[in-house]
């Protein structure tokens, strides 16, 4: 594995965690939104990641980057609440709230933030090692 591929690996991890943090922010900001139908209700979104293995047969060059495969909407049911006096209530008197679990989103936010910080530390350490290697000849 090239010593410079660590920058690609760490960068892909930072990109993935940045997307994850943006989705968590979107989920939390829409957690209290209300709609008058199930179809229009915001659904929790989660990223889908996969490891990209290159040259798996070559043990010395087995590097793994993070690929973002996409974003999926949660299939959990939306929350129906009986509120006949609400202006957004449907004909039956129900309003619909997103299927966002705030506690789960906060845990995702902390995990993504820590992962991002760890990738920054790996990047900084690799940079320092390269700089120290270049200083050997001085």
TrEMBL record:
Gene: flgC
Flagellar basal body rod protein N-terminal domain mapped to chain residues: 8-32
Occurrences of domain Flagellar basal-body/hook protein C-terminal (ranges): 91-134
Record keywords, A-Z: Bacterial flagellum, Cell projection, Cilium, Flagellum
Cellular component terms (Gene Ontology): bacterial-type flagellum basal body, rod
Family classification: Belongs to the flagella basal body rod proteins family.
One record GO biological process: bacterial-type flagellum-dependent swarming motility
The protein, known as: Flagellar basal-body rod protein FlgC
NCBIfam families in the record: FlgC
Source species of the chain: Methylotuvimicrobium alcaliphilum (strain DSM 19304 / NCIMB 14124 / VKM B-2133 / 20Z) (Methylomicrobium alcaliphilum)
Complexes and interactors: The basal body constitutes a major portion of the flagellar organelle and consists of four rings (L,P,S, and M) mounted on a central rod. The rod consists of about 26 subunits of FlgG in the distal portion, and FlgB, FlgC and FlgF are thought to build up the proximal portion of the rod with about 6 subunits each.
Subcellular location: Bacterial flagellum basal body
Source organism, top-level taxon: Bacteria
Chief site of localization: other
Pfam families (alphabetical): Flg_bb_rod, Flg_bbr_C
